[in-house]
Amino acid sequence: xxxxxxxxxxxxxxxxxxxxxxxxxxxxxxxxxxxxxxxxxxxxxxxxxxxxxxxxxxxxxxxxxxxxxxxxxxxxxxxxxxxxxxxxxxxxxxxxxxxxxxxxxxxxxxxxxxxxxxxxxxxxxxxxxxxxxxxxxxxxxxxxxxxxxxxxxxxxxxxxxxxxxxxxxxxxxxxxxxxxxxxxxxxxxxxxxxxxxxxxxxxxxxxxxxxxxxxxxxxxxxxxxxxxxxxxxxxxxxxxxxxxxxxxxxxxxxxxxxxxxxxxxxxxxxxxxxxxxxxxxxxxxxxxxxxxxxxxxxxxxxxxxxxxxxxxxxxxxxxxxxxxxxxxxxxxxxxxxxxxxxxxxxxxxxxxxxxxxxxxxxxxxxxxxxxxxxxxxxxxxxxxxxxxxxxxxxxxxxxxxxxxxxxxxxxxxxxx
Length: 416
Description:
Blueprint: H1 15-25, H2 29-51, H3 54-70, H4 82-101, H5 126-138, H6 142-154, H7 158-165, H8 169-188, H9 199-208, H10 214-222, H11 231-243, H12 255-266, H13 275-282, H14 286-295, E1 303-305, E2 308-312, E3 320-322, E4 341-343, E5 348-353, E6 358-359, E7 368-374, E8 377-379, E9 383-385, E10 390-393, E11 400-402, E12 409-415
Antiparallel strand pairs: 1-2, 2-5, 3-4, 5-12, 6-11, 7-10, 7-12, 8-9, 8-11
């Protein structure tokens, strides 16, 4: 698995967030939770505006953040800022859930009212951007402002908006493109260079009105070149479109949602996503795999072994083996042989390794398979292994090195 791209390629103004995401990819739960606290208010404000239901909005944001934690190593700071990446995911998830909650939506309560939280609550780039979005939206006429909101917060297409406004889809497309042109200029801090929508604006309007092909929509989300527009131009339009998410009320996560999030990222629940993988590796029922993962943080049952901490997952008679003995049996009598005994590893076990430590060869000297549960492993054959990766452990060899600077490495091992 390849490492994250260099932080100096991060979107300007997003270096701090990109650094925290790089730390999260190494398993730094604290850095990721700090990011969540910085951007969750904006995400929750947008999902609440879409769904109109606090419980559903909190659940949506929770799911997006958990997915971001589990896929932290996939974040590419060259493609998008953390805020935009998460906003795309939150809006998409909320729109998918919208049909179930449409009756509960708040009609237009967010139309012109914007509030801000304490400056220390949100990321430093959010407050000024929110003010710029508010100002740009309030400068629009009612029709294009309404069209932008219906498209972004309700996911309506040109035909549906036209039916509500009693106009034609062509007029709606023109209104959305022109509104995005003016929004783009406002966010850039410059007056519009022309008074008609550019190809950039028409592409952004087609994206917002869901008129792009699936392939082009995915390219737009990733900020890649489309047609004659370069990647940087597409990325700028994508960021402008998702700036609309800030035209709403920011809201802090409820304490119980935050506690649930922290538990899933840094508490005992953090290993639960690997239940199926652990059950498959150890050939155990799912309920047994869940019990094993719940025992990982418990102090009982662990023992030291060659600088590692191991948790045997089955009992049986210990096998004792001679680790060193004279290679010249004729030189001494049997009673003079020095034997250093070492306990054999059980067939199934959990191993904890301090960051930077080497995982040496083990006894018995057989093939083994290893599931990474936490931390990073530098492995000769597979390179860097992350949580959820399955790697081989050939007989008679060291497994690798626990990644320095990250959290404690936790492995599940099956000796075959």
